[in-house]
Specification:
The protein is of the alpha/beta class and 343 residues long. It contains 14 helices and eight strands. An eight-stranded parallel sheet has the order 1-2-3-4-5-6-7-8, sandwiched between helices.
Amino acid sequence: MAKPVFLLKKLFFDEVEKLKGESGGGMVSCHAHLDRAFTVNEENWEQSKVSMEEKWKLVNEIRQKNAADPEMMKERVRGVLEMMIEQGISFFHTHVDADLNTDLKVVHAMNELKVEYKDRIALSFAAHPTQGFLNEDGTDHDSRKIEIFEKACDLCDLVGGLPSADRGLASGGGLEKHMDVIFGIAKNLGKDLDVHIDQENNPYEKDTEKLIEKVREHGWEGRTNFLHCISVAAQVKSDRTRIIAGLKDVGANVIVCPTVAVAMRQHDDKMAPLHNSIAPVPEMVEGGVNVSIGLDNISDVYDPDSSGVLWDEVRLMAVACRYYEPEMLAKIATVNGYKIFNK
């Protein structure tokens, strides 16, 4: 009896095979938090049910454990890297926590793994300012946080960003000031930016447009990755069209992470055009924006149901966006990501 064929999967991997010569030999995952992968357990399971903003504070314990025992973290990450290699990923980019809890210990440990695995999978890192840059009372930036973050960025390939972490600046403008800090560091070090933006699936969140403006202001066209852009899908069509044109104009790379995106809490108290909780990928592709894909959180408190399998992300993106184009899906999972990090 003939074995049934899952045609979409077959067509996708057929296209991936054709593109291997342009993507470093396989698939490319453009976003993750590898140092926290597979850290959800029975003790912290309940933490996975709270809001994203609450989780930013709750993961301090995980970061402290990673910094206290880097060898334990490295052993766990080795298992994840073996998963990536087994499924055919040849290039893997991840954010690495860098704050007052971790100092530079996690970054150093991850760089050791980069050397250890250099002949099996190419790794790329962005320093991640999980705590943001605000001081304890939210009245100003904490220079210690910025200092340790810049040192971490110097040891990494890209400069990360989480502008919404500083939205609570008492005097206002925290999001824009966070952007100015990371652009300043990127320019000082001559490195590209990798920025979490518009994660809330909220029609009133318009941070993608603010980041586009900052790219122009700082002259960082073609050197800024926009991670998620979920709230763009919550805008009316005319606004989406304008935003997508802006993304193309500044040479933005948009990285989507479908499982995390779809898992975002829904705002049932707000009105928006009907849409799924994910960036409008077909519109972005049609508008000439370079779109790629990543795994993001893998079985941690942010996303306890993520499998760490890139095909699962591709399939969910196809479903959530109603985008059944095997050739383009394969490009999103290979060459579109590879060219971001291999210029």
